Amino acid sequence: MGVSIWEGNKAERVARALEIIAIANAKNIDLSNMHEVQEIVKAGKAREFFRIGDQIDITWKPDNSAEAEHHLPFDVVSFGPAIDGSGNTHQNAMWLQSHYALTGIQFSGNNAFYVPEAAMPAGTYYFTIGNNWGNNCVAGKIYEFTTTQEIPAGWQLLLGTASSNTSGLPDTVPANWRVRTFANGLQNAPTEILELTEVESSSGTDLGVLSSSTKYAESGINNMQRAAYGYNRYAHSAIRQWLNSAAGKDEWWEQKNPFDHRPDQLATVQGFMAGLPQDFLEVIRPIKVTTALNTVSDSEIGASEDVVDKFFLPSLEQEYIVPQASGVEGAYWEYWKERLGLNSPQIQGGDGANPAHIRYAYENHTSAQNVRLRSASRGSAHRTWYVSTSGYASGYYHATTANRPAPACVIY
Questions:
Q1: Is pLDDT above 90 for 74?
Q2: Nearest-CA neighbor of 405 among 123, 170, 60?
Q3: Which residue, 64, 99, 253, 390, is the most exposed by fewest CB within 10 angstroms?
Q4: Does the structure show a pLDDT above 60 at 6?
Q5: Do residues 262 and 148 share a domain?
Q6: By CB neighbour count within 10 A (0-12 exposed, 13-18 middle, 19+ buried), where does 54 fall?
Q7: Which of 70, 127, 125 is closest to 101 using CA atoms?
Q8: What pLDDT score was predicted for residue 373?
Q9: Bridge-partner residues for 3, per DSSP?
Q10: If phi over 0 gives left and psi between -120 and 50 gives alpha, with beta otherwise, what is residue 91?
Q11: What pLDDT, in 10s, does the model give residues 141-168?
Q12: Which domain holds residue 359?
């Protein structure tokens, strides 16, 4: 644990390391003590000791029993105000971000397509596809299924396949779709797997229209995009829960809305904070993090939403990329402006590819990774932004894709 320099050529690293040591010795400061680092920040002296790009070198153990301890340097990415959960502004905060990409975690598990408000007696039910999507979702098509047992109120019905909760509705032929029933979002194996049949009309009970324009609801039929590929709402995300938990396997996730279903990684990884040193965790302070909501399903909730967390995913704007919602998701970090070498924010898409934005796996520093951001791709209910292995920003990946995070945190 301590301050180190991991980037630059050897001569630059040595010179900067000697400069840091000299400053610390002159002021009798132990920079391997995270509480002393915190006192420097609290006193408003962080810029005297640290530069953008300096690193706090900590260790991280992804799994206490199965995997070795890894160096996980956190870059100093910015200095400036941070707001805590009580609304107090801490002007002299120091912002840090993991230099490497961590374990791949789904932004969201699969979402149910239907949650009954009242019990569904044994019998036949149907729904109608509301709009064309991809090769297989055709507007007006009707699909019915029959259950031989009552489905209680509040249960989840997922549109998956015979072997998976993921249907990939627009990309999977309807013959492979199945209705999978669960008592709640935490249940792993389905109670029933029911065949779906395309029909011209149905005498069963109508569940409604499965559409990409459906707004957020607490029961009934879900938005089709969420039912296919998860939910891009950061406050409800599985990856946010993983980053802010020290709990063990099968313990770090809880259902955030009636359609929310467990991420695939829940049973195989422990919470991110479980593998971090205690003295590092003690100086990381919770802050308010704002994220713009998608305009497809969530516009009635509001334009943006706040959470208060210790660890969080960066936004487009914070990583100096042209945002979809300017001035909403945080000020840009000096680290990314300097590293990218741009005078204006990086443009979106392949034309904006910048090799300086490529990041690598924590366990293999030559393995480039797709790195998830928290910004929703606002024209959908299921996609979020990420930075690709080529260094460009894209809003294409589904929430159910297990991209890797490079989380940020704040000392104040």
A1: yes
A2: 60
A3: 64
A4: no
A5: no
A6: buried
A7: 70
A8: 98
A9: 56
A10: alpha
A11: 999 999 999 999 999 999 999 999 988 8
A12: 96-106+232-411
